[in-house]
Amino acid sequence: MTSRLPAFQADSTATWHAELHLAFARQGARTVLRENRHRGPLRVQKALYPEGDAVCQALLLHPPSGIAGGDHLAIDIAVDDNSHAQITTPGAGKWYRSGGAAASQTVTLKVDAGATLEWLPQESIVFDGAIARMATHVNLAADSRYLGWDILCLGRAAAGERFEHGQFSLFCRVDRAGQPLWLERGSVAGNDAMLASPAGWAGASVCGTLLCSFPELPQLAAALLEALRAVAPVDGAQHGITAPPGILIARYLGNNSEAARLWFAELWKILRPACCGRPAVLPRIWNT
């Protein structure tokens, strides 16, 4: 089903309030996009099948191409029993400088029994002066599979811009069968001491986190860690990979968003067969 949500009365301070609700289901051997509802400038145009019927790929589009002060985006994705969805974006997300109003994005991902979700957005660029709140909550069933990443860039490095004004806050939680596997939150202001501190960003401008969780991970963790740790970012940035109970985590801390994305893609090539039971097939949109 594809539809628009009922008309929304935004308050006078908001630029855009946008919502996207997607649901994927298994029909025979095929994963289908059974629900596609949107309100405002946030949508998926159609389901794609670059690997055949089993995996349904969706490109998440935000036509304004950037999030301004007062914008509020809500993305809600459900992956039904035994289906497999892959979500990516056609380009980097941008958080523009704010005149005072905060902007937010809330992502809720629900992966039901035997289902698989790959959440693979391109990087988010936080402009100097942005006031941004980002939250992601992943709800996994006892036997579902998840492989996802997020890459955050502070300032526009190509323009020599640093994050000297504004504020951003982050929240990420992954639960399996109602029990937390991963919980992270933080808040940093422009020119915050933590941006330069070795205990924080250590002077870097790009931070990335890859998370992977699947039922067989405890048995495969040692071999996967050995293979993954043999791959390093091409820019020599600080990085690390670990596997606490139930989840595998890779971290990038450097100054090159492309290097972070390429490193995560190389890790994904190793992790995908183990987590998703499929060889890595790079989304075509990454090459455009």
Seen as an oligomer or otherwise, the chain set is: single chain
Tell me the helix content. 10-25%
Computed Rg: 19 Å
Number of strands: 17
**End-to-end Cα distance:** 29 Å
Mean of all residue-level pLDDT scores: 91
The helix tally amounts to 3
| SSE order, one letter for each helix or strand | EEEEEEEEEEEEEEHEHEEH
Low-confidence stretches: 1-14
Categorize the overall geometry: globular
**Helix/strand-derived class?**
mainly beta
Give the DSSP E fraction (strand runs of 2 or more residues).
35-45%
Protein model, in words:
The protein is mainly β. The chain is built from 3 helices and 17 strands. It has helices at residues 193-196, 217-229, 257-276, and strands at residues 2-4, 17-27, 30-39, 56-59, 72-79, 84-88, 93-95, 103-111, 116-120, 124-126, 131-140, 145-154, 167-176, 179-189, 206-213, 238-242, 248-254. The strands form 2 sheets. Strands 4, 6, 7, 9, 10, 12, 15, 16 and 17 form a 9-stranded mixed sheet that branches. Strands 1-3-2-5-8-11-13-14 form an 8-stranded mixed sheet, with no helix packed on it. Residues 1-14 have low confidence and may be disordered.
